[in-house]
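<amino_acid_chain>
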Amino acid sequence: MTTPFRLTSERLILRPFALSDAADVQRLAGDFAIADTTRVVPHPYLDGMAEDWIATHEPPSDVAIQLELAAVERETNALVGAVSLVAISHQDSRAEMGYWIGQSYWGKGYCTEAARVLLDHAFGHLRLNRVCARYLKRNAASGRVLEKIGMREEGCLRQENKKWDVFEDVVVCGILRCEWEASTAPAEDSTN
């Protein structure tokens, strides 16, 4: 029997979505505040959309081109959001990270915690060389998450996304494996 795929942190478990998560996905992602601050989450989030979205997910593997994971609290098993690697290119050794966290869980550090665990997997297990992320320029909170995990701003794509008939600037950030490894390496003992 194979062990189910899961990544863990102090407070979270990252695992594949199940169809039983659909109602929570619809409730959390269906919040206008989530759709308003993300590039791709729709609003309204209609019945059946969560099931359709979950059905598109590939099983986690070392050759998958996407990895969509539910972020759930370890203590309660409550779904708090999603984190993903998409457009995984094994040839170019890169991927794009995405995430959303339900509004009732904002301000608790869950997004940063989930993103760190996923970067660890991307650089450690998948051995990718680069991970990038994009966010709407007006979503400063998303920019702070990326800064906390060590991503650097690489540029602004002016009017890159059209959200509800308004053109939005999109900020691109990235991190290389060597930068991640340097930032997560244990500090050297200066007493030697």
Q: What stands out?
A: The CA atoms of residues 155 and 187 lie 31 Å apart. Helices lie at 22-29, 32-37, 49-55, 110-125, 140-148, 177-184. The mean pLDDT is 93. Residues 110-125 form the longest helix (16 residues).
